[in-house]
Amino acid sequence: xxxxxxxxxxxxxxxxxxxxxxxxxxxxxxxxxxxxxxxxxxxxxxxxxxxxxxxxxxxxxxxxxxxxxxxxxxxxxxxxxxxxxxxxxxxxxxxxxxxxxxxxxxxxxxxxxxxxxxxxxxxxxxxxxxxxxxxxxxxxxxxxxxxxxxxxxxxxxxxxxxxxxxxxxxxxxxxxxxxxxxxxxxxxxxxxxxxxx
Length: 197
Fold this sequence. Notes:
It contains seven helices and no strands. By secondary structure, the protein is an all-alpha fold. The longest helix is centred in the last third of the chain and has 34 residues, at 161-194.
């Protein structure tokens, strides 16, 4: 077990194997095996949407609840470990999780025939539409405001010291905007199908 858990790739692979075992066992116990029909693909896409969304929002909240408040407490000689190693890796997963969440969410809405209704705020998809637009704004912020400014702030793109400080502030404030939006977005996403509205 130790060899599996010491590697992220092996840990994820083991998680997928565990999932397959559970699916097979549940099929054997209930007599209901997966039928790879439209219903299953709708469910599978929703699962991928939730999986990528958990990664995206978890990283957003990690940045805002842990990393940003901790940076002033880290001695200057130790900050390169964060800015050169941890932050770029976290930002890689952050931006791709945002894209995966949006793409799978749009696919879920399309497969369930409410994409146009949601994006145009038509009942009964008004609430999920609000959530979708909030998520689209957040994803735009990730790719077109936070990431370009973080590249400057982290020194991936070389800029003058003043521009670097300005970029760091813009990235932080936009990340805070996304944190603010995420609270309402998550409520709308869950509220549509679970009675919040």
